[in-house]
Amino acid sequence: MKKLKDGKYLTLLGIYIGLFLAGVFGALLFYGPAKQEARQISAQPAPHVSQTIERNVENGKGAVFTVLLLGHGGAGHSGGALADAIQLLFVAPTSKKATLISIPRDAWVSTPTGEAKINKAFTVGQTVNERAESTKMAAAQVTGLPVDYFVSIDFSGFERLVDQLGGITVNVPRSFVDHFYPVRGKENDTCGLSIDEIAQLHETHTGFELEKQFTCRYESLKHEKGPTAMDGEAALKFVRSRHSPEHGGDFARGVRQQAVLLAIGEKLLSLRALSRVDQLYEEAAKIVNTDLSLPAAQELVNILGEPSDYDIQTISLGENVFNLATSGDGQSILVPAAGPGRFGAIHEHIQKRIN
Q1: Which residues contact residue 149 at a Cβ distance below 8 angstroms, ignoring those fewer than 6 apart?
Q2: Which end of the chain has the lower number of beta carbons within 10 A, N or C?
Q3: What residues have CB less than 8 Å from 355, skipping those under 6 apart?
Q4: What CATH number labels 2-175+224-354?
Q5: Angstrom distance (rounded) from CA 16 to CA 91
Q6: What is the spatial distance between Cα 331 and Cα 117, in angstroms, rounded to a whole number?
Q7: pTM of the model
Q8: pLDDT tens digit string along 66-104?
Q9: Contact 201, 157 (CB under 8 A)
């Protein structure tokens, strides 16, 4: 866990509004059928924040509330229905603490339809609310924390948000190069290879090693550690990059996702966005889905109090608590170090840092 240093950390309210608007880089489409689902969410919002906090106190969870930040690619993206990024924002207004917890998408959990990667939990159900509830249950398994609300946004919405803000400045945590970032629309490009050449490649390569032979399907990304200006497209590529030898894989993606969320919060603060909660909610409704109603969002501002009083921290659940494993059907998955389904040590790891 990393505590953001004085003078460099963002206030809680700025982060929250940023997360509320941005979600976590992917979720429900706000065109076509998704528009109707969004209206259903608005008609059946989750309880007000004060009611949620009271319920958590009664259940021995403390005066806290949480927001699950989900994201998927949406239309036109491979696996667009899967949650591509999962972050849990934990807020304790009484003790003035907030924590952003990164949950790896390959974590193996129980869902209403059986065991699966946590990113698949967002495909369980017919409506947005049902899929979000399934993912809330899965996130609670991993973290041991109550999950009260959700926010989600698709890749297209995320790009639009960053561009509408005039871009953001991201504090890149580590320098890296990724020579295999997929170019959208070229997933099946033959790259000029003949049928015989492709057949030969299939005989000598499998998996990602086979995919890498089609070099025209990829572009190279390079980032240096430190503050970096990004537009929406650059920010999306930054958080989705997976194949860097220096900073690749699911754990690294979670760290970069947190860096971008913080950058969005900082930009919103600089634009004095907090003075326009009502307007922000209406603007957000064009981009995100959430079960946090406008009255609940307005109440939230009062409950949080003075933002500068908060201690804000991040937790990345990575190889310190998870081990790489293989599922019964051959998938590469992450299981707790104590063994499949044994999340107790992870719960303790989180509790030590949020108390």
Answers
A1: 46, 52, 65, 66, 67, 68, 290, 291, 292
A2: C
A3: none
A4: 3.40.630.190
A5: 10
A6: 9
A7: 0.74
A8: 989 887 555 455 554 677 788 898 988 888 888 889 999
A9: no
